[in-house]
Amino acid sequence: MADPEKLFKVDVVTPDGLIYSHRSSIIDMRAIDGQRSIMYNHVPLLTPLAIGDVKVKRSREMNQVVDHIAVSGGYIEFSNNVATIIADSAERARNIDVSRAQAAKERAEKRMKEAREKHDERSLERAQIALRRAVNRISVYNSKK
Predict the structure, then answer these.
(1) Tens digit of pLDDT for each residue in 1-44?
(2) What is the DSSP string of 33-69?
(3) Could you tell me if 32 and 50 are in contact, meaning their C-beta atoms sit under 8 angstroms apart?
(4) pLDDT digit string (tens) for 76-116?
(5) How many CA atoms lie within 13 A of 123 on its CB side?
(6) Is residue 2, in this structure, part of any structural domain at all?
(7) Which parts of the sequence are annotated with region: Disordered (predicted)?
(8) Beta-ladder partners of 57
(9) Which of 7, 64, 137, 141 is the most exposed place for a label (fewest CB within 10 A)?
(10) Rounded CA gap, 32 and 37, in Å?
């Protein structure tokens, strides 16, 4: 008889509350120092996250379900087979309003152009972050297809 699949709990929390809670066989995410993957019985860790796609694989079987979550920074803490992501903002791919994300992307590009013309480094930096967030949301939305 095969060993039962080893799953661990994954929770994603934002200032608005719990937005995701499932069991997973592996999660992939982008930390500020590079790509990370976590599996059952991983060593404890606490690391800051970059703007990116968190992929939660809920099964290693043939019918693997992968949930995509757009996160805009935050932290992941893993211990005792519980992964907790505390994010500044997070959205599941199925909940992303892609037209709103596209509008945010266009606004950010416009603000970047204006900031460059005015040589306003601080505004340029904020616009670049807004652009990365919008592009990430669009990319995560498209990953669900």
Answers:
(1) 345 578 999 999 999 999 999 999 999 999 999 999 999 999 99
(2) TEEEEEETTPPPEEEEEEEEEEEEE--SSTT--EEEE
(3) yes
(4) 999 999 999 999 899 999 999 999 999 999 999 999 999 99
(5) 14
(6) no
(7) 105-125
(8) 26, 66
(9) 64
(10) 13
Q: In this structure, is residue 84 part of a structural domain?
A: yes
Q: Please report the sign of the dihedral spanned by the C-alpha atoms of residue 72, residue 45, residue 94, residue 16.
A: negative
Question: What is the total residue count of the chain?
Answer: 145
Q: Token pair 């995560």 is at which residue?
A: 140
Taking the C-alpha atoms of residue 62 and residue 65, their distance in angstroms, rounded to an integer, is: 9
For residue 79, the tally of other CB atoms under 10 A from its CB is: 12
Amino acid at the residue 37: S
Instruction: Check whether residue 85 and residue 48 sit in a common domain.
Output: yes
Q: What is the DSSP letter of 93?
A: G
Residue 88's SS3 state is coil
**Can you say how many angstroms the Cα of residue 73 is from the centroid of all Cα atoms in its chain?**
8
Joined together, the tokens standing for residue 133 give 């967030």
Q: Which domain holds residue 131?
A: 97-143
Q: What is the DSSP letter of 5?
A: P
- For residues 69 and 29, state if they share a domain: yes
